[in-house]
Amino acid sequence: MAEEAAGRIIRVNIDDEMRSSYLDYAMSVIIGRALPDVRDGLKPVHRRVLYTMFEAGNKHNAPYKKSARIVGDVMGKYHPHGDAAIYDTIVRMA
Question: How confident is the prediction along the chain (94 residues), in pLDDT tens digits per residue?
Fold first, then answer.
């Protein structure tokens, strides 16, 4: 069993592997989260906030809702990474 596994081990240079793996991860983050989508110009966090506000009935003719309510709903349903990015997004979209 150990001899089979030893035959499948591929030796690689740790520097090259870390450089390649980090570059793949960084590009994934940039494309997936940091750059706005071409279709609507929104980042995923913007889209999550707007959808949550739509679901909550936030409209120009409806009573206001506290931002903490919107942030809590976004965190609870779509963005479980902390509230700072959500508050920042709401402020920048205002």
Answer: 566 666 788 888 999 898 888 988 888 888 877 778 778 888 888 999 999 999 999 999 999 889 999 999 999 999 888 899 899 999 998 8
Enter the tokens of residue 71.
């942030």
Q: In sequence order, which residues have a C-beta less than 8 Å from that of residue 65 and are 6 or more positions away? A: 53, 56, 58
**CB-based contacts of 47: which residues, under 8 Å, 6+ apart?**
37, 40
Phi, psi of 82 (to 5 degrees): 115, 160
71 contacts 83 by C-beta, under 8 angstroms? yes
Beta strands in 28-92 (DSSP E): none
Strand blocks (E) in the chain: none
**R_g (Cα) of the chain, nearest Å:** 21
Predicted model pTM: 0.67
Q: Identify the DSSP state of 25.
A: H
Q: Please tell me the distance from the alpha carbon of residue 48 to that of residue 6, in angstroms, as a whole number.
A: 47
